[in-house]
Amino acid sequence: MTQALSSRLATTHHPLITPQELRTLLGSRHEIALLDVRETGVFAHRHLLLAVSAPAWRLELLIDRLVPRRDTPIVLVDGREDIAHRAADKLAALGWRNVSVLQGGTEGWAEAGFEIFSGTNVPGKALGEVIEHRKHTPWIDVDELDTRIARGDNLVVVDSRTSEEFNQFSLPFARSLPGAELVYRIRELAPDPETLVVVNCAGRTRSIVGAQTLIDAGIPNRVVSLKDGTMAWLLSGRTLAHGRSPALPEPSPSTLTSARQHAAASASRAGVEFIDDKALRALEAERDTRTLYRFDVRTREEYVAGHLEGWRWAPGGQLVQATDEYVGTRGARIVLADWEGVRALTTAAWLSQLGGYEVFVYAPPPLSAVVTGPEPVRVLPFLPSAPLVSPAQAFHLIEGEGEGEGEGGDGDGNALVFDIDRRAGYERRHVQGSRFAVPDRLPAILGKEPDGIVLLVSPDGVLARSVAAELIERTGRDVRAIAGGTEAWVAAGLPVVQGADGVLTGDDDHWYSPYAHADLATRDAGFRIYLDWELGLVAQLEREADVTIRLAPAAV
Q1: CA–CA gap between residue 385 and residue 552 (Å, rounded)
Q2: Which residue has the higher pLDDT, 411 or 259?
Q3: How far apart are CA 340 and CA 250, in angstroms?
Q4: 165 near 230, Cβ under 8 Å?
Q5: Is residue 216 part of a domain?
Q6: Cα–Cα distance between 69 and 218 in angstroms, integer?
Q7: pLDDT one-digit tens code per residue, 485-528
Q8: Do 313 and 296 meet the contact criterion of CB atoms below 8 Å apart?
Q9: What is the pLDDT of residue 405?
Q10: 426 within a domain of the structure (yes/no)
Q11: What is the pLDDT of residue 555?
Q12: Strand pairing report for 388-389 and 496-497
């Protein structure tokens, strides 16, 4: 390792902020980004309520999206400051200029007497529990639903999760209608005002939020949430369907008019602010001093077909459920593009009630210029790029066949290969011969492995190349990334396997869903723990001073 490059990784002592000082900042209306730089699964066990998961080894891919303004005050958190100072070094090298570290980390926060939370997307999930607690959102249990289905009652069940989640598993009779699509499309599925509308999700949050969205919008139907969602359905011994991908129903002109009226009423009660072109340009002109996020909340297909240049995609239901995955700066401005007068309005209404941001809705002019294709991923360079190898060459290296004639390989032994993205994805499909480890644990793992080539793989290869570059500088090992990742490996017809064999770092990478357990007793125990955790959020929030949830009054 050269002295110049090693100096990039030398930990500097960055300014510290005490738990008391941080609590004061979080209670103010000023911008602040509170980032927990541990791996997401570690974060999920113990963290501050308003902390956003931003693992240190993924910052090159995440930081520009989470905290776009370089002068934003950033406070980094870990367990005991062991990772945060290194992450602060990286942010400084990438151009963020106002970074400090929480003194004592998460444990210092707890020792100061402040609340510690577990789980992921906690603010959004807490919103659902607060809604049910304060608004008494009506619900139906799985036994009553099953009885009604069996006798042919006039009802429709809509699943408010994403279409991708619905495809993985669903109630056999449910229709997919993601959260932001509910008001927009419900009349196509329930044109009869006497039809009972049941909203479900995998657990509780999106069932409750989805049902209350329709109730607050004032649709004429009776609406209920399915108590405890598909978890309760499975706990009762029933089964789910898999692999379903029904098309979303398209609103007719008459139902769209009604949907607009309902959405506008919800937005008005929540205090959503509308802006025109002039106001949007004014917000954009201030981006150097006030953070601005711009989101298109329509379906993925609509976004890809044409969106405003520079606007990110965030399906509306997920933007409410998992705000912390899209927005890293508290006190920032959020503008939602409103293409048809429904989905941005219903999304903005809940974001306004969640609190912590200034929320605006912007209607693009009919002849607005658009760009096509998925949202680009911007990777910020921190170190010189790591070497790439093609899937075919990686296969030969793993099999111990060297690098090929004239390519400088020594052919000694088999290359080590590590999948470094998500354990769940690894278990579904991974490169034959690979093992799974989170990046943060790789330096220690490699310290116990024999010398030789190390190959990293991630789904598309982007994370692998970024991590490989840093791993080279931290360990001095010959580390390379598989170009195109697992997707390219599969496209090349190379062997993949399934299962948990080779998982080295447990659930460090992500919160491990109970649904992933093959053993039904373990799965069901996980369901009960999760549901109890969600139900306990209201009481825990009452002990937390920085809660900003302010529910709008009910329709008169």
Answers
A1: 50
A2: 259
A3: 12
A4: no
A5: yes
A6: 39
A7: 999 999 999 999 999 999 999 999 988 899 988 899 999 999 99
A8: yes
A9: 40
A10: yes
A11: 72
A12: unpaired
Q: Which helix (H) or strand (E) holds 74?
A: strand 74-77
Tell me which H or E stretch contains 263.
Answer: helix 253-269
| Same domain? 134 vs 58 | no
My answer on whether 45 and 101 are in the same domain is: yes
Residues 6 or more apart whose Cβ sits within 8 Å of residue 115: 49, 540, 543, 544
Cα Rg of the chain (Å, integer): 24
Question: Mind listing the pLDDT tens digit for each residue in 99-116?
Answer: 999 999 999 999 999 999
Q: Into how many domains does the chain fold? A: 4
Per-residue pLDDT at 408: 38
Cα angle: 47, vertex 42, 30; to 5 degrees: 35
SS (H, E, C) 138-161: CEECHHHHHHHHHCCCCEEEEECC
User: Which two three-digit tokens encode residue 199?
Assistant: 């909203």
Residues 315 and 409 in one domain: no
- The verdict on residue 375 lying in a domain is no
204 has a pLDDT exceeding 60: yes
Statement to judge: residues 130 and 156 lie in one domain: yes
Domain region containing 297: 266-362
Q: State the pLDDT at residue 385.
A: 92
C-alpha 326/C-alpha 123 separation (Å) is 13
State whether 129 and 224 are in the same domain. Answer: yes
How is residue 47 annotated by DSSP?
A: B
At residue 477 the predicted structure's pLDDT band, cuts being 50, 70 and 90, is very high
* pLDDT category of residue 412 using cuts at 50, 70 and 90: low
Whether 103 and 19 have beta carbons less than 8 Å apart is answered as yes
pLDDT score at 544 = 86
Q: For residues 389 and 482, is the Cβ–Cβ distance under 8 A?
A: yes
Orientation of helix 122-135 relative to helix 205-217, angle to 10° = 50
CA angle 265, 271, 274 (to 5 degrees): 85
Region for 419 from its dihedrals, namely left if φ exceeds 0, alpha if ψ lies in -120 to 50, beta otherwise? beta
Asked if residue 449 and residue 401 are part of one domain, the reply reads: yes
CA 4 to each of CA 59, 90, 190, 473: distance values in angstroms, whole numbers, following the listed order: 21, 15, 65, 11
Helix pair 253-269, 343-354: axis angle to 10 deg: 20
454 plus 432 within the same structural domain = yes
Q: What is the mean pLDDT of the chain?
A: 93
Instruction: Specify the CATH number for the domain of residue 149.
Output: 3.40.250.10
Residue 513 domain-assigned (yes or no): no
For residue 333, give the nearest of 381, 283, 394, 258 by alpha carbon.
Answer: 283
CA dihedral sign, ordered 529, 522, 516, 524 = negative
Note whether 345 and 298 are within 8 A (CB): no
Q: Where are the beta strands (DSSP E) in 138-235?
A: 139-140, 155-159, 175-176, 196-200, 223-226
Asked whether the predicted pLDDT for residue 46 surpasses 50, the reply is yes
Q: How far apart are CA 321 and CA 76, in angstroms?
A: 23
The answer, yes or no, to whether residue 60 has pLDDT greater than 90, is yes
